[in-house]
Amino acid sequence: MFTQIKEDIACVFDRDPAARNWFEVMTTYPGLHALQAHRFAHWVWKHNFKWLARVLSAISRLLTGIEIHPGAKIGRRFFIDHGMGVVIGETAEIGDDCTIYHGVTLGGTSWDAGKRHPTLCDGVVIGAGAKVLGPIIVGKNSRVGSNAVVVKDVPESASVVGVPGRMVAKPHPEHEKRQKMASKMGFDAYGSTKDMPDPVANAVNRMLDHMHVVDERQEQMCKALKSMGAAMDDVKLPEIDSCKLDSGENDDSNEEKLNAS
Q1: CATH superfamily of 2-171
Q2: Whole-model pTM?
Q3: Tens digits of residue pLDDT in 76-108
Q4: Domain limits of the chain?
Q5: Side by side, which strands form the sheet with 87-88?
Q6: Which terminus of the chain is less hemmed in, N or C, by CB atoms within 10 Å?
Q7: For the stretch 105-140, what's the b/e string if a residue is b when 16 or more beta carbons lie within 10 angstroms of its beta carbon?
Q8: Distance between alpha carbon 244 and the CA centroid of its chain, in Å?
C-alpha cells in the first residue's frame, strides 16, 4: 500500500512542474486525495460493503469536487490534475500512467446493467472538459483533446479532438524521424504531428523533414569523401541553450567562437 502511495506522489512530480515538495503535494492536491480515498472505497466495495463504499465516495466528492464510483478500476500512477468536476463511472477501467484534467467525464450512454463506461489503456491523456462516453476503448498512449466528445473506440497512439471526436493524428513512419531530429537539435516536439490543425506545428514539421533530408545527404557525402581517403573529423552538433539565448549571456564568447571558426 505504501509503495503505491509513493508511486502516486512521484507521478505528480513527473507531470506537474508546479509541484515543489512532497508535503505540498500531500496536503494541497485534491486529485491525490480523491485517488487515495477511491483506493480505500474500492477495497471496501470489493468486500461487499457497497453502501459504506458509496458513502466514502460521496464524502470524497464533497471534499475534493471529484466523483469516482467505488466500483471503477484504476491502475498505477494515475494523475488527476486540478480535478474539479471529474466524474468516473462504475464500470470505467483506467490503466497505468494515465492522466486526466478537470471537467473530464468517463460516463455511460445507456441504463443497461453491465459494462457501460469506457476503458482507458496505459498512458492515455484526457484533456480538460472532454467527455468519453460508453463502453469504448481508448488505445494505449492516445490523446483526447480538451472539450472533445468521444463515443467510438480510439486506436493506439492516436489524437482525437472535436465534437463528435475525430482522429486528427495517428502513427506514421515520419514521426520517429522527426522525434530524433528534434532531440538532436535540443528541443522536444512531442505532440507535434503532421495532421494537427495547427499552422505552427505544420511549419515545424516541414522544417524537421527538410533538415532530416539534409542531414542524411551530408552523412552520405562524408562517407563518400572518407572512402576516397579524405581526412575528416566527426563534429558534434552544438547544444542549444534557450535560456542563454534569451538572456543574451555569453554573447562575446559566442562571437569569439564564430570568428575563430
Answers
A1: Hexapeptide repeat proteins (2.160.10.10)
A2: 0.64
A3: 999 999 889 999 999 999 999 999 999 999 999
A4: 2-171, 172-229
A5: 67-68, 87-88, 105-107, 131-133, 149-150
A6: C
A7: bbbbeeeeeeebbbbbbbbbbbbbbbbbbbbbbbbb
A8: 28
